[in-house]
Amino acid sequence: MDVSVLFEDKEILVCYKPAGVPTQTKSVAAQDMVSILKKYLKDKGQEPYVGVVHRLDQPVEGVMVFAKNRQAAAYLSGQAAGNEMEKYYQAVVAGHLPEKSGRLEHDLLKDGKNNRSKVVPAGTKGAKHAVLTYRVTEEKEDVSLVTIRLETGRHHQIRAQFAACGHPLAGDVKYGSEQKRTGQSSLALCSVKLCFRHPGTKQRKEFSVVPSGTYFQEFKK
User: Across all residues in the chain, what is the average pLDDT?
Assistant: First the structure.
């Protein structure tokens, strides 16, 4: 599999993750971004160190940053954990939201057995607070294109929060979407922009990609 590299230096590697490829998996037989990037670095004669500092769900496409040494991994992980790493997404959601911009706050409880997260009452044991802001950028007959900024990084956060509001992501049958196209295996969610401080220079870096998934195509017409 070819690697789509957006930026690379001795500290970091920024790339595009295709939908359907896991960030990292324990399965020896399955290709993931870590194994793909290790091979990429090894083929270039570089130390094949790939530090994971944030993740994208397997069906999600978009921009990611990986560290090329332990010091860079620690620095970037600190930003991700402290929500200093700015993460922007685009999603196609079912229907039209009543408010064209806003803030969603819920408590989410992860169900590891079924690989889902659900909205639960505040104070529920094991639940984590989830916050995002959104802006509707375009509407079609039965779907909306939404730009999202994550303020917290919870399991399936965007998917669970929009589903809880009655607007599941297109293609996301796990969370109740009826927008399912034959042959479309991924859901309509893309990590479109990532901002962080470079571990070496400490300067702010910003990288972006354009969504390529099928559900986004009708908004490019």
Answer: 92
Most confident residue range from 28-37, 118-127, 181-190: 118-127
Which has more pLDDT, 187 or 144?
144
User: Residue by residue, what is the 3-state secondary structure of 28-55?
Assistant: CCCCCHHHHHHHHHHHCCCCCCCEECCC
Beta strands in the chain (DSSP E): 4-8, 12-17, 51-52, 61-67, 86-94, 101-111, 116-120, 128-139, 143-150, 189-197, 204-208
Tell me, what's the pLDDT at 183? 45
Residue 57 falls in the annotated catalytic set = yes
Instruction: Please write the tens of the pLDDT for every residue from 56-79.
Output: 999 999 999 999 999 999 999 999
Q: How would you class 136 by CB atoms within 10 Å of its CB: exposed for 0-12, middle for 13-18, buried for 19 or more?
A: middle
Of the candidates 57, 107, 142, 172, the residue annotated as catalytic is: 57
3 state SS of 209: coil
> How far is 47 from 149, CA to CA, in rounded Å?
34
Identify the DSSP state of 173.
G
The burial class, CB within 10 Å (0-12 / 13-18 / 19+), for 214 is middle
Rg (CA), the chain: 18
Q: pTM score, two decimals?
A: 0.93
